[in-house]
């Protein structure tokens, strides 16, 4: 069995107080609270690698869309995706080990449960631009090296998706240098250009793309990742909020999380330019925001008319998923039947994965207009990613803009055979697979995919927004003594416990009128219950949310 080499004796003591829980975001907290946790996370990643026979695992030191004073630790499994759910318990066991003896015992327990052999391990480590990341990365590297036979590589400053990509590529036996990431995106986008519409459609003039980089690591990578591909489509690139030297600016009034939740223009953009920064406007100009570690993206259009200066019309993850599936399904429809390989032997199965938070109008558009199945997964991209694997081509996005499109192995093999036989649609789909990360959602690759889809369809923001109208919605949260007193169904839309609460929610929904819906779910990190409601009008949605909140508060009092 794998064992420590004595390096755990030098493990920094954990910060006082309970360790943060490990969830979809990994460990995340104010940076000083993570003291000692970097070492334990590195050790965990080494154990995960050893359990996989020495295939690489990774650790991203990032707090994504959180303020600059926070930081976090997120493990990438050997497949390049999120750490497997079964290993999250092990992460928390190591995090809770207070001294060297307890840590050694925790390592022994994990090794026994998972059958971790004594042998090689490899851990790749990267960080975002937060000043606290350097010390945390050193902890991670030291922790990984505490396992006998473990090797480490410090990849420096990368986006979180780049770290996941590097892990995936290394385990495929392919080059994982950052330059390969950039050149691969450029080449794939360039190869897609022949399939792009060249007519008088709204997008055909190219125009400009303004990228709000959230003053995060994406600002350091966006030009190298995007410029060549966009130039090939006649699109000029402009970076906004690209200052990485001042941590207080990170995600402050800008970035995907801010734009998606506040529905306001990010810092540096104003309706007329008089507030400083760039004035919005210009024919063919599109706007997109990344988050602090560049794994999310949301597009937006400055709202026109009305009495709401600074507001935006949001093109969030729901709409990105629909745009991509319209594009990809048309390419699938163009595949030549005579070149379809025996490897698939049937029409490819396309589908979309959403969470319960997806606007009901988007779900209706996918099922009623596009005629595609929708699977509902629990909140958290690790759940959506797993659900997308049931399709030959599964598109998944959370409303927050985190997602991608997964191409199944059999379908990818079928496309490779068809592409070799001269099927241009198959070749375009293979290039789309390259642009859309197969490891985890990637904001930079997502931008290129969206631009390719818009250009192919000849759409601008107006056409994209016109696909459907969002149903009015309202969200809130109810403080509770213990969130563990609530249990929901696997898709989070039905309350299992406390008994009787779901009946009260159903009554409130019925009273709210046709098309209304509401659900509640306990937070994964704090003692609150989140409430979501939709209805035909904003007033009805707000009233429904308040009624369900009151019922929830009473049931959990």
Q: What's this model, at a glance?
A:
The protein has 557 residues and is α/β, with parallel strands linked by helices.
Q: Number of DSSP helices?
A: 17
As a percent range, the share of helical residues equals 25-40%
Kindly report the name of the CATH homologous superfamily of the domain at 7-173.
Answer: Alpha-D-Glucose-1,6-Bisphosphate, subunit A, domain 3
- The parts where pLDDT drops under 50 for at least 5 residues are none
CATH hierarchy class name of the domain at 7-173: Alpha Beta
The pLDDT mean sits at 92
How many β-strands, per DSSP? 21
Shape: globular
Separation of the first and last Cα atoms: 48 Å
Give the key terms:
5-stranded mixed β-sheet; 557 residues; alpha/beta; Alpha-D-Glucose-1,6-Bisphosphate, Chain A, domain 3; 17 helices; globular; 21 strands; 18% strand; TATA-Binding Protein
What can you see in these coordinates?
The structure is a single chain. Among the domains are: 7-173, Alpha-D-Glucose-1,6-Bisphosphate, Chain A, domain 3 (3-Layer(aba) Sandwich), CATH 3.40.120; 473-555, TATA-Binding Protein. Strand 13, helix 10 and strand 14 form a beta-alpha-beta unit. The chain has 557 residues and is of the alpha/beta class. The chain has 17 helices and 21 strands.
List the topology elements.
Blueprint: E1 27-30, H1 37-51, E2 57-61, E3 70-76, H2 85-95, H3 100-114, E4 121-127, H4 133-145, E5 150-157, H5 160-171, H6 178-192, E6 208-212, H7 218-232, E7 236-240, H8 255-262, E8 269-270, E9 278-279, E10 286-290, E11 297-302, E12 312-315, H9 317-333, E13 350-354, H10 360-369, E14 374-376, H11 381-388, E15 393-397, E16 403-407, H12 409-420, H13 424-435, H14 443-457, H15 461-465, E17 473-479, E18 487-488, E19 495-497, H16 501-511, E20 517-522, E21 528-534, H17 538-555
Parallel strand pairs: 2-4, 4-5, 6-7, 6-10, 8-9, 13-14, 13-15
Antiparallel strand pairs: 1-3, 2-3, 10-11, 11-12, 15-16, 17-21, 18-19, 20-21
């Amino acid at each position: 069995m794998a064992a420590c080499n004595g390096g755990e004796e030098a493990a920094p003591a954990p910060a006082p107080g309970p360790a943060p829980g490990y969830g979809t975001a990994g460990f995340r907290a104010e940076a000083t609270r993570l003291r000692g946790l970097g070492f334990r996370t590195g050790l965990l990643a080494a154990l995960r690698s050893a359990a996989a026979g020495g295939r690489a695992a990774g650790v991203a030191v990032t707090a994504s869309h959180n303020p600059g004073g926070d930081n976090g630790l997120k493990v990438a499994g050997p497949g390049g995706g999120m750490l497997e759910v079964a290993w999250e318990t092990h992460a928390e066991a190591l995090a809770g080990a207070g001294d060297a003896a307890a840590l050694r015992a925790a390592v022994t327990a994990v090794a026994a449960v998972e059958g971790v052999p004594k042998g090689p391990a490899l851990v790749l480590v990267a960080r975002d631009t937060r000043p606290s990341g350097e010390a945390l990365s050193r902890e991670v590297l030291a922790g990984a090296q505490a396992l006998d036979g473990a090797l480490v590589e410090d990849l420096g400053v990368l986006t979180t998706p780049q770290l996941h990509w590097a892990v995936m590529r290394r385990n495929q036996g392919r080059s994982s240098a950052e330059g390969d990431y950039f050149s691969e995106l450029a080449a794939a986008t360039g190869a897609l250009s022949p399939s792009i519409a060249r007519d008088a459609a709204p997008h055909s003039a190219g125009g400009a793309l303004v990228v709000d980089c959230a003053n995060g690591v994406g600002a350091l990578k966006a030009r190298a990742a995007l410029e060549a591909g966009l130039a090939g489509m006649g699109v000029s690139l402009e970076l906004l909020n690209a200052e990485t030297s001042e941590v207080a600016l990170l995600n402050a009034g800008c970035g995907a999380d801010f734009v998606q939740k506040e529905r306001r223009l990010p810092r540096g953009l104003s309706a007329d330019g008089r507030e400083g920064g760039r004035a919005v406007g210009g024919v063919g100009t599109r706007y997109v925001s990344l988050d602090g570690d560049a794994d999310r993206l949301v597009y937006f259009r400055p709202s026109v008319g009305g009495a709401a200066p600074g507001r935006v019309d949001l093109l969030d993850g729901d709409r990105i998923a629909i745009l991509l599936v319209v594009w990809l399904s048309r390419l699938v429809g163009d595949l030549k039947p005579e070149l379809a390989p025996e490897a698939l032997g049937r029409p490819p199965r396309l589908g979309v994965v959403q969470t319960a938070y997806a606007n009901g109008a988007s779900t209706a558009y996918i099922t009623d207009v596009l005629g595609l199945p929708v699977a509902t997964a629990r909140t958290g991209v690790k759940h959506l990613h797993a659900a997308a694997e049931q399709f030959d081509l599964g598109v998944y996005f959370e409303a927050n803009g985190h997602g991608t499109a997964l191409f199944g192995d059999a379908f990818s093999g079928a496309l490779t055979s068809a592409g070799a036989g001269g099927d241009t649609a198959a070749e375009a789909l293979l290039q789309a697979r390259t642009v859309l990360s197969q490891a985890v959602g990637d904001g930079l690759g997502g931008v290129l995919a969206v631009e390719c889809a818009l250009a192919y369809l000849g759409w601008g923001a107006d056409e994209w927004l016109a696909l459907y109208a969002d149903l009015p919605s309202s969200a809130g949260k109810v403080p509770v003594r213990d969130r563990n007193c609530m249990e929901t169904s696997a898709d989070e839309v039905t309350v299992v416990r406390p008994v009787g609460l779901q009946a009260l929610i159903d009554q409130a929904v019925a009273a709210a009128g046709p098309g209304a819906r509401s659900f509640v779910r306990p937070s994964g990190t704090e003692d609150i219950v989140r409430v979501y409601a939709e209805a035909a009008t904003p007033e009805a949605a707000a009233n429904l949310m308040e009624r369900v909140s009151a019922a929830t508060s009473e049931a959990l009092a």
